[in-house]
Amino acid sequence: MNDRSNEANILIVGSTTRKIVALHSGKRWVIGRSAEGDVDIVFDESIVSRVHGEFYSEGEDWYYHDLNSSNGTFIDEYHVYHEDIAVPLKDGTVLRIDDERSLGKAHSAGILIYFFYGNFESRYDSFPLNKGQSEITIGRAKQNDIVLDTITASRKHGMLYRDGGRLMYKDLGSTSGTYLNSVPVSAPVEITPKDVLIAGNIKLIYTGDMFIYTKPDAGSYLTIKELSRVVNDSDRKGQKKTILNDVNVGIQEGKLVAVLGGSGAGKTTFMHCVIGYEKATSGTVEVDGINILNDEKLIKDKIGYVPQDDLLRPNLTTIKTLDYIGRIRLPKDVNAEDRKNRIISTLRDLDLPEDVWNSQIRKLSGGQRKRVSVASELISDPPLMFLDEPTSGLDPETETKFVRLMKRLAHNNGKTMIVVTHTIRNIMDFDIVLFFGPGGKLCFSGSPQSALNYFGVTDFVDIYDRASKNTDVYSNECREKNRRRLG
Q1: Is residue 383 over pLDDT 80?
Q2: What is each CA distance from 385 to 273, 314, 417, in whole angstroms?
Q3: What is the pTM of this model?
Q4: How far apart are CA 163 and CA 150, in angstroms?
Q5: pLDDT band per the 50, 70, 90 thresholds, residue 207
Q6: Is 234 left (phi over 0), alpha (psi -120 to 50) or beta?
Q7: DSSP assignment, residue 268?
Q8: Handedness of CA 413, 419, 424, 428 (dihedral sign)
Q9: Which of 7, 31, 27 is closest to 19 using CA atoms?
């Protein structure tokens, strides 16, 4: 599902328009009201300028450029108006052509544009609003109007209802909570066009007359900005030492990511700061636009962590181990049958045969035990997973099978699998490489082949030497490049 290059789509919702347009790389896609000239996507709405703006790609990234339009373009909450800048687009970016007075309100002449990667039907469902329907329930149970087929949502998660002419949302005491435009919902709130609700791991976008919502395996976008950690220097009394230095990177959903670097380069510090084991001195870690860095519950909901040395009880069977973990990690309204179904589904995703299910942990092979460790995190369905040296101690054949299994989970299940590793045997199987140099400085982010091209080498071993000798040059270039990407 997520095995894509940089092909993108836009969903357009207007007073007379509702369509999906595939944006292919290699050309500029101009939007506007004029049916003449170079306009590729034509609107009838008068608020759109004759030539309004354009979408285009550079390498793996997509951008939107407002072409000096009369009303400008709102991109998320930023108003691009008579500014000659191209704005980088992330998966799920909301663009709107509207006047400033009506932004956030129902406006018959306004246009909402939702930018996303991949095929719409494979990633999204929709629910049209019926004006005669007074209440719309949202949750995991099949009896709901909008069914969120994920263990992260409560059986009855929330409810939409009418209050006069307003559409309201109320969280029904869900375990994971609801977020409206990245803010926790603690009381009934009004929903207006272009608002985004997140319930469990599902994103719901309100267009004005319908909800568009992500399917469970659509994944989540990880954005890390200016992440740093400064500690006391044990070698110089009274001095400080930076062990993670202004890391900026964005990672799309459904990617298998390798975190590489020499000893002391900050790989483990990076991982620990993202998952909350160590406190970052500064910066943000966002999942789908929500900063999770200082929220322990959000970190646990959004990120799974598989340590190098597992904590599995050797005398318990696989099933009993996962059942014990499920009782702790899954929402309180998950009953025994649902918990069992979730466990079995996870074991099958990890290619663990039935004879392993009832075997004691101590009787499993190294590869099987590692997959059970992964299962212990996957049962709670986090969109992101960190794995610390997961192939350590595995023979070459088992290591290769494990890496390819993780890649399949990333691509088919929408998981972002981030692997901190020292081995490069299977590095070309990864989608993205993050390479750290001394001092916790990110020197490169991109595909494995791009890394070889960028450092001018044919063997990954040689990158370690290049990064250690020219760390500041590479890290400064990487930081500025990623800052521009993240906007």
Answers
A1: yes
A2: 14, 23, 5
A3: 0.82
A4: 29
A5: confident
A6: alpha
A7: H
A8: positive
A9: 31
